[in-house]
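Example with several molecule types.
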Amino acid sequence: MKLSLALGAAPADGWRRLSTRRRLGLVLLGLLLAVAWLTPWLHDADPARQQLTRILESPTLAAPLGTDHLGRDMLARTAAALRLSLDMALLSVVSAAVPGILLGVIAGWRGGWGDRVLGGLADACLALPGLLLVLLLAAIAPGNFWALYVGIALVLWIEYFRVVRARTRVLVASPQLEASRLLGFGPGYLFRRHLWPELAPQVLTLAAFGAASAILAMAALGFVSVGLRPPTAELGLMMTELLPYYHEAPWAMAQPILALCLLVLSLNLLAAKETK
Amino acid sequence: MDAINARRFGSRRFPALGAGLGRVLLPRLLQAGLVAWLVGTLTFVLTRTLPGDMAYRIAAGRYGHDMVDGAAAEAVRTELALDQPALLAYLSWLGDLLRLDLGRSLVSGAPVIEELGHLLGHSLGLAAVALLLSLLLGPPLGLAAGLRPGGALDRVSEAVASLLRALPPFALGLLLILLFSVSLGWLPAAGHGRSAHFVLPALTLALALAAVSSRVARHAMVEVSGSAYYAFSRTKGLGERLSFLRHGLRNVALPIVAYLGVQFVTLIEGVVVVETLFAWPGIGHALVHAIVARDLPMIQGTALLMGLLFVALNTGVDLFCHGLDPRRRQP
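Resulting structure tokens for the full complex:
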């Protein structure tokens, strides 16, 4: 119910109106959310606790997904890494979307020098490939979650700004908005009644893509060991750590890869447009 | 009079290749300047915010950690004028950048420019092979799928593309290593030297790129084959092949080429990760190493080079589109 609302469809027949692809994405994302947040309730293990007598164990009742090279519980670690990725995705998407949409509406509505300044700022942020900017910010504060977050949000807001600005410019010139304005409605009503219903689907698609790229960026930096530091359970970092033990524990190696792949897949499916 | 009119009409209908070139090149030139300023400023902030005394750090980089004492650090401090106020230091930092004086690597001691010269060749080689491979894989597959939207090939290629897009390049590369090097033993897992070393990193990048470009090509093909001008070219009697070559190809190519600009982001980002994974001696690998080793001049140099490479590749795409699409040359 809540999720179908989030997709901008009416809650009653929201599910039926979704495409198969989006349904699949929603189910997959729901499953991953459940694994991430229910695991600490159902399986009480510290993701950082080492047990050097029990390294690289196969899945057992005590450790349902086995243990890693330091005897840490893989289920707890994978769930913790999923939570971290989803936190980062939610945080960076929200803090990129809100200013992006606000500034986009203002720039598209008012135009003038403010529009030009904001457009220039967006171009400046796009001058470097996103990951490079995040990498440089990560270098300033190594291993810091917030440095990564600032970098990712700084890259993501531009997309919202550009799309919202372009769409707003068209909508502001439309006769229905003109009519509402002549009737004396204020900007708040005009936004709710005319702009947001048009913008919402695009913004939600951008949000799903943005979440996927935030997750991928963090994992990529973790993978090349310039992101978060051990012993944090982070998907990219876990892959690097477990790679040398591929022969002894392929199931352990497979978990972060599978978790990342499914997470990104579910978000991509949610963002997918109908194909002709 | 007629001649003038004819010429004017002529130039309006078929603008010369050179027309409007400034509009293409000027923004890119600005972007290049912006990249240099952004990278320079960020690395300058980096020099000032890293913990520890800057003079000691540079002296340790130069002479080795055992050879540093207060005198050596003082010598470095006066030599590089590290005690001047931040604003002055920032201006002289940017001045050095403007003169392309990137300093020396703190790790190897060699001038950064020289190091970059070696690295760039390797990275460009890898990027070129990957791009070529992706263009051989993606667009032809997309065009074939777009000829029959909803057909078996379309569905299969879409499923594969969605899966590949969900797999980030490093995970994809990892799986390829495990399959082709560890299990099958056909190809070297990492390193550089023989042409066999090219296969896996280039394939990793190419698959990531082709996953997107095949879908772009498919949509472009569907768009073009559903258009009125394409239907007209068929009804006026052109065969399938001729109408594709004369009326389809350019219009299909335009979005594919334009989308390359977006894909270069993937390529540059992929180069950082894939080079690190495959121990490829290029700029991406060097950037990661420089960050781990806190080698500031190298961080600045490699990031700058990657940024400028990104701008240069995009300029190439702009110019290609400019040549491909006469509408863009119109005033």
